[in-house]
Amino acid sequence: MARYTGGVINTGRPFSYYRKVFFNNHSKSSILANLQGKKLLDIGCGYTPYSADSMFRACFDGGIEFYGIDPIIEENITFKARDSIFTRLTGGSGRFDSNAPGVERAISAMADDLPFGDNEVDTILSCWLIFIWINKEQELLKIFTEFHRILKVGGNINLYPLPDWNSFRFKNRELKSLLNKFDFTQQFIFEPFNFQYPPTNRLTFTKNC
Ligand SMILES: C[S@@+](CC[C@H](N)C(=O)[O-])C[C@H]1O[C@@H](n2cnc3c(N)ncnc32)[C@H](O)[C@@H]1O
């Protein structure tokens, strides 16, 4: 799989954004309490590992095993003024620290080749990435195969944003049979007059076998 770079904005969205799109706007304290003891990955995490107001950091501070995965992660990472500006536009502070606490859990990897063992992850989040491949069944197959491999049975994948999943008619047999190994729900998310939350869906896939 190629790294997607077309017009990519690598932001560092704040926890307040993740609360809305992934956790039904529950309070930070209840989200963190529910995640205690779990292993989570954020695929295509952008600069969140370097931002003090991110979910990555809140989990690190709260003793939760949360990994940020993105091919932009590198040892001597530097940030441009535009990275800060885009992050501020998405509600984040836009202040990055390359030596932020917990950055050892920021990993350079691709969505279809993750450095984790079989059946070891509880939750996968991915924000503003997977929609890129929604019409590319081979790419989706690679990604879902990898997600299925690393997830525990009962573990889940949460993807935002995506169109109505019921409107897709996948043709690839392998993909269709893999998707049957997940139970699926979707939640419509929309805030009028707020460009950060366009009318779209969060999808949750729970591994059933
Ligand atoms: C549109 S940005 C979204 C960043 C952030 N999650 C957000 O919500 O603003 C997509 C991110 O995915 C990363 N990315 C691109 N191709 C990838 C791949 N194959 N696997 C994992 N991450 C990838 C990019 O480097 C970029 O940071």
Short description:
With 209 residues, the protein is an alpha/beta fold. The chain is 25% helix and 22% strand. It has a 7-stranded mixed β-sheet.
What's the structural blueprint in terms of helices and strands?
Layout: H1 15-22, H2 28-35, E1 39-43, H3 55-61, E2 65-69, H4 81-89, E3 106-107, E4 121-127, H5 137-150, E5 151-162, H6 173-179, E6 182-189, E7 200-207
Parallel strand pairs: 1-2, 1-4, 2-3, 4-5
Antiparallel strand pairs: 5-7, 6-7
Helix pairs in contact: 5-6
The structure holds S-adenosylmethionine (SAM).
The site of S-adenosylmethionine has 21 residues, from loops.
Summarize the structure in words:
With 209 residues, this protein is α/β, with parallel strands linked by helices. The protein has one domain: Rossmann fold (3-Layer(aba) Sandwich). 25% of the residues lie in helices and 22% in strands. The chain has six helices and seven strands, in the order H-H-E-H-E-H-E-E-H-E-H-E-E. Strands 3-2-1-4-5-7-6 form a seven-stranded mixed beta sheet. Helix 5 packs parallel to helix 6. It is globular. The mean pLDDT is 95.
